[in-house]
Amino acid sequence: MRKKRLIWILVSILAVIGIAVGGFIMHQHQEKQKMIRIANSDEAKKIYEAHMKALDKNALTTNGIIKSYEINNDNLYYNPMGGMEVTVFVNGDKDLDFQFGLIENDDGTYISAYYTTSPELSKLLKGRKK
Question: What pTM, to 2 d.p., does this model score?
C-alpha cells in the first residue's frame, strides 16, 4: 500500500515537472518566432536600408558596396538595456555585418536606437568615400 502511494506521488511530481519544462520550452519558441517576425518585418527592413543608404549612397544597387543583405535569424536576442539586437550580413559575407538595436515606440512602431558596423565593412565603406 505504501509503495503504491509513493509511486503515485513520484509520478505526480514528475508529471508536474514535465508540464513546467514543456511550458517553458513552448514559451521560448514563441518568443523566438516573435523576434523573427519583428526582425523581418517591412518596417525593420526600412530601418536597415535607410542606414545602409546613408553610408553608401548606391547601396542595394549593382554600383554600391552594399549589394544585398541577409538578416541573421539565428542570433536574435533581447538586449538587457532594452530593445532587440539584430545582425544583418552584407553581400552574403559573415565578416561584413551591421548590428542594429531595435526599440519599440509607444505606438508599436520600431526605431533603431543605434547600429554598429564590423571593422571589415567600415574599411570598405571608408575606402569608397576617398
Answer: 0.80
3-state secondary structure of 91: coil
- Report the percent of the chain where pLDDT is more than 90: 82
Burial 47-81 (b: 16+ CB within 10 A, else e): bbeebbeebbeebeeeebbbeebebeeeebeeeee
Phi-psi domain of 41 (left: phi exceeds 0; alpha: psi -120 through 50; beta: other): beta
> How far is 87 from 106, CA to CA, in rounded Å?
24
Instruction: State the distance between the two ends of the chain, measured CA to CA, in whole angstroms.
Output: 86
Considering just the CA atoms, what is the radius of gyration of the chain in Å?
A: 22
2 DSSP 8-state letter: H
* Stretch 89-108: mean pLDDT: 93
Provide mean pLDDT across the span 6-27. 93
